[in-house]
Amino acid sequence: MKPADIKAALQEAAKELNIDKIGFAAADPFDELKERLRKHRKAGYESGFEEPDLEKRTDPQKSLPGARSIIAIALAYPTKMDNAPVSKPGAYRGVFCRASWGEDYHHVLKRKLEALRRKLVEWVPDAKAEIMVDTGALSDRAVAERAGIGWSGKNTSIITPEFGSRVYLGEMLTDVYLPPDQPIENACGECTACLDACPTGALVGPGQLNSQACLAYLTQTKGFLAEEYRDKLGNFLYGFETCQAVCPYNRGKNFTHHPEFQPEAENVKPLLKPLLHMSNRQFRQRFGSMAGSWRGKKPIQRNAIIALGRYRDRTAVPDLVRLLEEDPRPVIRGTAAWALGRIGGGEAAEALNRAQEVEPDEQVAVEIEHAIEMCRMRETADHRTYREA
To answer: For the CA atoms of 262, 264, 268, 272, what is the dihedral angle to 10 degrees?
Structure first.
């Protein structure tokens, strides 16, 4: 088969596999990206989750020697949920971002790409291929942009004309030559909605993200969340999506044609308090099939504690006291102390005073001290309000 015929056959196979977009790119080095990544690293904007070797991130030959082409795909995901459960006093809920709804997209895209690989090998028996979805060395967004899937928006997401930026991306390197597609012209224009709406200023410029200040990345970290970000997190347990929610190209978009991505309502908007004492096994059984579970339960529990503190849920005080007094993880104890300080009240104050006497961890001790001060300030404010009334 001629290269153009193989490409056409792969495009037809993509339709049969319910792949929303497929594009083809040359496997040349991403030289411009390499320079941007160098500046990105120098500025301290990396998340820490990336492939550290910039050569691997920008040179397809490092992943597949002899690579000539890259096949990029995109799958759209839903943004709305029928009969979504709502938070109520004493029964507050957290939320997983839409990119974690349904089955883990890594698995879904890899299955689609593996099916394409099998087709390619049927037509070119000695073809070599390497599949990547998000966790590979190459930048999915750089590949998708070169392959004409969409343009790189000011919010750093790939924006497609058909589906907005609510798409998952994956790619397959191959040593088979396939005629490349043309990139799409950037259509963000003068719009700065995403930059203006970012609550932490993480979007430091069009298409430039400081991951260290990005709430979507911070929800996935395992250490203490800096206090300046706790009030801005809302009730997100995993991910954050303001920069996508405000994008005009996402307005009114909701795609439900991939059953794998349909959300289980109680999993993507779970009650917060039951998360606090969940075992590793229980966590894996309930959330293990979701993309948002990849870092384990600790970040989810920390974020749930922050949400309870923000809600000032007094019914959660016994649960938070138990964490403060019994949990072996300093991050969980310290965050529970912060939440108790936000909620306030006699029970919270007494527990914090007891913990202050015995806490061995220095950072947790600082959190406890600050929480005690918050309780005092809240008590003073309550007394002042009572006298004025």
So the answer is: 170
Looking only at the bridges linking them, the beta strands covering 203-205 and 208-209 are: antiparallel
Q: Find tokens 């004493």 and name the residue.
A: 90
CATH number for the domain spanning 359: value is: 1.25.10
Among the candidates 157, 174, 191, a domain finishes at 174
- Active centre residues (catalytic): 134
Strands 69-76 and 167-174: antiparallel
Point out the domain boundary residue: 144, 174, 204. Answer: 174
CB neighbour list of residue 162: distance below 8 Å, 6 or more residues apart: 20, 21, 76
- Give the neighbor-by-neighbor strand order of the sheet with 21-26: 21-26, 69-76, 167-174, 129-132
| Residue 333 located in a structural domain | yes
Which candidate, 355, 345, 352, 346, places its Cα nearest to that of 372?
A: 352
Do the Cβ atoms of 91 and 265 come closer than 8 Å? no
pTM over 0.85? The answer is yes
The range of the structural domain enclosing residue 384 comes to 312-389
The secondary structure element, H or E, covering residue 71 is strand 69-76
The answer to whether position 375 is within a domain reads yes
Q: Could you tell me if residue 92 is inside a domain?
A: no
- pLDDT (tens place) for every residue of the chain, 389 residues total: 899 999 999 999 999 999 999 999 999 999 999 999 999 999 999 999 999 999 999 999 999 999 999 999 999 999 999 889 999 999 999 999 999 999 999 999 999 999 999 999 999 999 999 999 988 899 999 999 999 999 999 999 999 999 999 999 999 999 999 999 999 999 999 999 999 999 999 999 999 999 999 999 999 999 999 999 999 999 999 999 999 999 999 999 999 999 999 999 999 999 999 999 999 999 999 999 999 999 999 999 999 999 999 999 999 999 999 999 999 999 999 999 999 999 999 999 999 999 999 999 999 999 999 999 999 988 776 655 545 54
Work out how many domains the chain is built from and give that number: 2
